[in-house]
Design brief:
By secondary structure, the chain is of the alpha+beta class. It has one domain: Immunoglobulin-like, CATH 2.60.40. Helices cover about 25% and strands about 45% of the residues. The protein has three helices and twelve strands. A twelve-stranded antiparallel sheet has the order 1-2-3-6-7-10-9-8-11-12-4-5, with helices on both faces. The chain is globular and about 45 Å long. The two termini are about 20 Å apart. The N terminus is likely disordered.
Length: about 180
């Protein structure tokens, strides 16, 4: 259930961004903007999330920078009170991940791994446990940027750099709205 709700939230957010970099400006469920992070609230079921798009994206194949077409690229932290979800970390890379791959996440000197499930949602990656969610969120609050690296099903390596300016304020706003 948690995976399907989170996938639905990600789908809504991806659809909002698909028509433009910040198509969320037109969304009725965005409730706040904190520098580089947006806060969204959905009512049925109640869910709140913060999201951002990368400040820089580099795509490589065979160690050469290449131009590729990608869908929405977003980093999320989600709260879903009915599922007791308190700060679930997820990422959509805008392409199907390579089967069996993991997504690397670096925040300063700290390194984490997000898992993928290409059978059920090939473009999403999540923290493996609530304990990992907590560690990642703590690092994000203290960091200046987050770098996510992954591999596509076509062999492209991606590196997406997200600013963490406004992250803590956005996270607190989402958490307060979903108590």
């Amino acid at each position: 259930m948690k995976l399907s709700i989170l996938s639905g939230i990600a789908g809504v957010a991806v659809a909002l961004v698909a028509t433009g970099v910040w198509a969320q400006d037109e969304s009725t469920n965005r409730v706040a903007v904190e520098t580089d992070w947006n806060v969204f609230v959905e009512s049925n079921p109640t869910s709140c999330w913060v999201t951002s798009i990368p400040k820089e994206t580099v795509n490589t194949r065979d160690d050469r920078v290449v131009a590729v077409r990608r869908g929405a690229i977003q980093f999320f932290v989600t709260f879903i009170p009915s599922d007791d979800a308190k700060g679930q970390v997820s990422f959509t890379g805008g392409y199907p991940f390579a089967p069996g791959s993991q997504v690397g996440l670096e925040v300063g000197a700290q390194k984490f791994q997000l898992f993928t499930d290409v059978a059920t949602n090939p473009e999403m990656a999540w923290a493996a446990s609530t304990g990992d969610d907590t560690k990642i969120v703590t690092a994000l609050k203290r960091g200046a940027e987050a770098v996510l690296t992954a591999s596509s099903a076509r062999g492209t390596k991606t590196k997406d750099t997200f600013s963490l300016l406004g992250f803590t304020a956005a996270l607190e706003e989402a958490e307060n709205r979903c108590k």
